Amino acid sequence: MCSTLHFVPRRSEERGHADHGWLKTYHTFSFAMYQDPKHQQYGPLRVMNEDRVSPLTGFGTHPHREFEIFSYIVSGELEHKDSMSNVEILTRGDIQLTSAGTGISHSEKNSNKHGVPVHFLQIWSIPSESRLKPAYYTRHFTDEMKKDKWARVVASVDDEGVNREREGEGTPAPVHSGLTMYATILSSGKTLEKELNRRKAYVHVIQTSSDENAQGAKVKLSDGAGGELVLGEGDGAYVAVNSSSAKLLVENISGSEGPTAEILLFDMDA
Question: Which domain of life is it from (predicted)?
Fold first, then answer.
């Protein structure tokens, strides 16, 4: 039986990394001072930074244009302010998406006064059309909505079930890119299946362990036809989809009573 999916690992320790004291960050793709021609983008996915920001610090006001920018909050509080008069404090389970279009400026800070860092992923995708009108969206997904199931947290703006309301719970944020982003919190011993409808996919296992150097959860990817790959926390995988009927199997293999695994899956155009 021929493999319907081809996996290429993107190991956590091979990502770009910077420790600025107030910011500890890992870059899946080339970003800032980290540049690697082998990891520039994948499909429309251009940036995926896993950031930890110390209390009362953050990113000052800076401009963006022509990117779809979304933040996935893992823990802590992220204060967002922008030139569209949006001011919001985002917490665990929140997804915030800014369609930068013709241009916006924003700041992102950890305003927590009790010594709690914020851990979030900032993700950029390339829009399918240029010079869009800037827009701002937030969505919230409880842990229960993601427990041992796929939650569709971001989806192409014209996909079924996607609306352009500014806020919402349990419905995907609209993105002007050919991608769908799913999230799950997968219990040890559990397996999820996902049919992949586009040419490429990317999987990221979030580093949720309290100790950044801890081994944490282990996840096995497979296609049911011989293709397999094991990932740890902070690891990712490029996935080439070789069949129109390809299905991805994701299993938490952390062992009896092992930790849950928080996983992001991107189903994308080539």
Answer: Eukaryota
- Token match 């950044």: residue? 212
Check: CB of residue 200 under 8 Å from CB of residue 269. yes
Show the tokens assigned to 55.
Answer: 């209390």
Segments of the chain with pLDDT less than 50: none
Element housing 49 (H / E): strand 45-53
SS3 131: coil
13 CB neighbour count, 10 Å cutoff: 9
Pairing mode of beta strands 179-186, 151-156: antiparallel
What is the per-residue pLDDT for 123? 98
Task: Quote the CA–CA distance of 155 and 133 in Å, as a whole number.
Answer: 18
Best CA proximity match to 236, nearest among 32, 4, 50: 50
Residue 167: helix, strand or coil by DSSP? coil
The string of DSSP letters for 117-166 reads -EEEEEEEE--SSSSPPPEEEEEE--HHHHBTS-EEEEEETTSTT----S
What DSSP designation does 244 have? T
Buried-state track 175-211, b at ≥16 Cβ within 10 A, e below 16:
bbbbbbbbbbbbebebebebebebbbbbbbbbbbeee
AA identity, residue 164:
R
Total number of domains constituting the chain? 1
C-alpha–C-alpha distance, residues 75 and 232, integer Å = 19
- 123: CATH: 2.60.120.10
The confidence score (pLDDT) of residue 195 equals 96
pLDDT tens readout for residues 1-46: 568 999 999 999 999 999 999 999 999 999 999 999 999 999 999 9
